[in-house]
């Protein structure tokens, strides 16, 4: 098993964690931890003897900086080559790539994503795949909502999902229903 590295950093939403492994001297992100996750107990405590190259550390700091900018409302692009999509099963990979295709400020539904990837009755499976997204924020799964316009779930909690959508200009009412139309896909 390859050695994992990790760090965490403070954001306007709370502490975010990044775990990664070394891939031939380059960091490959294996997971992003959000503040509301039960499993998040402080990535720094889990990796007290962080021994990684300066190049890897700089790359991770760049990703962390992009996450911070995104959470402050800026438009950022993340490189897929920095994340370990191979750890996902083929269906989840399809779902995550489709989700990544939803532009900032737009949303889609679990069912529309399912139809887009060729699984027309797979709305629940899409929701399950997104609930296990190891790269939230980098692959912005907060942009998927239920068919009735309600927010659905999010590993970072509904308050964070609502805030992220509003930062992107998506109207969300007091009953957690999006008011943005048309949907993407």
Number of contiguous helices: 6
Estimate percent helicity: 25-40%
Q: How far is the N terminus from the C terminus?
A: 39 Å
- Written as H for each helix and E for each strand, in order along the chain, the element string is EEEHHHEHHEH
Gyration radius from CA atoms, angstroms: 16 Å
Describe the overall structure.
The structure is a single chain. This protein has helices at residues 43-46, 54-71, 90-100, 110-116, 123-131, 158-167; strands at 4-11, 14-23, 26-33, 108-109, 144-145. With 185 residues, it is an alpha+beta fold. Strands 1-2-3 form a three-stranded antiparallel β-sheet. A two-stranded parallel sheet has the order 4-5. Strand 2 (14-23) and strand 3 (26-33) form a beta hairpin. Helix 4 (110-116) packs across helix 5. It is globular.
